Amino acid sequence: MDKSSKGIRGGRRCAVLLNTAALATAAAWSALALASPANAQVFDKHLAMDCPKPYSQQCLGHPGIVVHTNGPLYAKFTADGNPPSCAPGDAAILFNDWPGNHAVVQPGESVELAQNRGDSEDVYVEVQMTGVLGGCNTGAMSGWSGNLHVETDDDAARYVGQPIPLDRPPSKPPYVRQ
């Protein structure tokens, strides 16, 4: 073989290696571009609670969902509009049975809660509603419903550290699971 043919072969090897490297790099960047954020989850769930008889303003039970977070957690409950809801209620968002925020909401209104949990954990995000006189509530509540929206990790980080306004100062937790 003459020197020129060795040079061509060496050049081809180099070109093949460069093309392979370029394809591998392009594939890696494509995978990164198409991948969703690793630490981000969004959940939406419609909640409906039938209160047991005899009806009162206390409706036992905390429907919700279990989510996993690596720290930041945001939840928003929006009471169903009128109809089917026709009265205000004191809606509380709880994380693992602990009340974090509550507010009296009219049909269609919301209450929110954001926390940095600090650890990687599963959290039961739940809602409890207590009846409030007004609208069709004349002293007892037969049920309630609404939408629970939950964001974790990167999606929730934009809410953590920003105060969520309370309609009134927090009181002793009246929201005990029974």
Task: Describe the model.
It comes from Mycolicibacter heraklionensis. This protein has 2 domains: 1-35; 40-156, Sandwich (Jelly Rolls). Helix content is 20%, strand content 38%. It contains 2 helices and 8 strands; from the N terminus they run αββββββββα. The chain has a 4-stranded antiparallel sheet with strand order 1-8-3-6. A 4-stranded antiparallel sheet has the order 2-7-4-5, with no helix packed on it. A hairpin with a 2-residue loop joins strand 4 and strand 5. The radius of gyration is 27 Å and the shape is elongated. The relative contact order is 0.24.
Strand order of the largest sheet: 1-8-3-6
Main sheet record: 4 strands, antiparallel
Radius of gyration: 27 Å
Cα shape: elongated
State the order of secondary-structure elements, H for helix, E for strand: HEEEEEEEEH
> What structural class is derived from the secondary structure elements?
alpha+beta
Task: List the domain count as a whole number.
Answer: 2
Total helices: the number is 2
Q: What is the CATH architecture term of the largest domain? A: Sandwich
* Strand element count: 8
- Compute the separation of the termini in Å: 89 Å
Query: Which CATH first-tier class of the largest domain would you pick?
Result: Mainly Beta
Spans of at least 5 consecutive residues whose pLDDT stays below 50 are: 23-37, 164-178
- Estimated helix fraction: 10-25%
Look up the CATH topology of the largest domain.
Answer: Jelly Rolls
Percentage of residues in strands: 35-45%
Mean pLDDT figure: 79
Organism: Mycolicibacter heraklionensis
Protein name: Lipoprotein
Keywords: Signal
Signal peptide: 1-40
